[in-house]
Amino acid sequence: MGDVAVGARSGHDGEEHRGHPVGAADPVADSAVTSGSEPLAGGDGPPTDEPPRTGGDGPDGPAPKAKKPRSFWKELPILIGIALVLALLIKTFLVQAFSIPSASMENTLKIGDRVLVDKLTPWFGSEPERGEVIVFHDPDNWLAGENTVEPNAFQTVLSWIGLMPSAEEKDLIKRVIGVGGDTVACKGTGPLTVNGKALNEPYVYPGNTPCSQDDQGGQFSVKVPKGYVWVMGDHRQNSRDSRYNQSDKNHGMVPVDQVVGRAIVKAWPLTHWGTLPVPDTFEQTGLSDQSAASAALTVAPQGLALAGVVPVVLWRRRRSGDSGTR
Q1: Is the Cβ–Cβ distance between 126 and 293 less than 8 Å?
Q2: Cα 250–Cα 259–Cα 283 angle in degrees, nearest 5
Q3: Which DSSP letter does residue 117 get?
Q4: Whether 104 is catalytic
Q5: Is 174 a catalytic residue?
Q6: For the whole model, what pTM was predicted?
Q7: Rounded to an integer, what distance in angstroms lies between the CA atom of residue 198 and that of residue 44?
Q8: Residue 302, Cα to own-chain centre: how many angstroms?
Q9: Of 173, 137, 155, 162, nearest to 262 (Cα)?
Q10: Residue 84: which residues within 8 A CB-CB, separation 6 or more?
């Protein structure tokens, strides 16, 4: 070992070496004696740069005992807690589930459908684009007189962490037709026009006309101010949207800062699962190019939370494994 002196002795103590008297200088013996920091003659000793060996009881006491890793069941509550925190963060900043309470967006969205709403892109300055289906806070008492269901304690907790749609928030869901600077108009039964371009709207509810012939707002021509959007439901004859709220303080417009986010996927029931892309009609020249920042996130908050927990599990297991080999 590097920290133990190694010596070599020639012959037997007290004996006379052959050919030399006792007590006489023995050049072979003298040259054979080495210190602990020098290699033995003939190259039998360890090299001078050999690292110290480990293991066994050393001068500093016995080696530390291997730490027994926690069982999975003891770690499970910690992992559940981490997942809940991640789900809350995701619900707050990334994706949130919402329930469809009315028929105003049929047949694109039906009563009872659950949609996932991308809340991330607005944080990076992305504004709603034409053709997107958005969720927004009630701009000016649009939901007056609507019945709301009081959730129980369990539903409140699940909605708080984003595993269930919120039943308390007064939000609406519609399709963006016009953005700031656009002129949107309806005459007769349609078609609906944006900046003079007629829209082909295959998403309109079967049997409905693009424009409604009434004197309550179904016939209109409006210029959308900057910082606002004009929204309409796909079930045109059964949607109280921008057309029928032109008497409010925003003249039927929805302020961009009241937009929660874009609905990107129908998540439930599974038979209705599907994405909510922007229809081709809004890609016409003279309208707008869709922002790359509005790319959809297509996973649920709990799925992202699980993905965030996996690295934590692997790190903890690896750390436990490393402590067992020390």
Answers
A1: yes
A2: 95
A3: E
A4: yes
A5: yes
A6: 0.61
A7: 94
A8: 9
A9: 173
A10: 161, 305
The confidence score (pLDDT) of residue 88 equals: 61
* CA pair distance 61, 76, nearest whole angstrom: 36
Contact present, 139 and 254 (Cβ < 8 Å): yes
Could you list the mean pLDDT of each consecutive 10-residue stretch along the chain, which spans 326 residues?
Answer: 42 43 45 43 48 50 62 77 67 75 95 90 81 95 74 64 58 96 96 96 97 95 97 97 96 96 93 94 69 38 48 54 45
Calculate the CA 158 to chain-centre distance: 18
Nearest to 115 by CA among 315, 279, 268, 12: 268
User: Tokens standing for 78?
Assistant: 């910690």
Given the residues 91, 119, 174, 266, select the one marked as catalytic.
Answer: 174
Q: Name the catalytic one among 91, 99, 102, 104.
A: 104
Token readout for 279 is 């229809």
Q: At which residue do the structure tokens 């809350």 appear?
A: 88
Q: Residue 32: what are its φ and ψ, rounded to 5°? A: -85, -20
**Cα 241 to Cα 231: distance, rounded to the nearest angstrom:** 6
Instruction: Name residues whose C-beta falls within 8 Å of residue 58's C-beta, 6 or more positions apart in sequence.
Output: none
Could you tell me the two tokens for 123?
Answer: 């944080």
Peptide bond just before 39 cis, omega within 30 deg: no
CA distance 21 to 3: 36
Q: How many CB atoms lie within 10 A of CB 195?
A: 14
Three-state SS at 277: coil
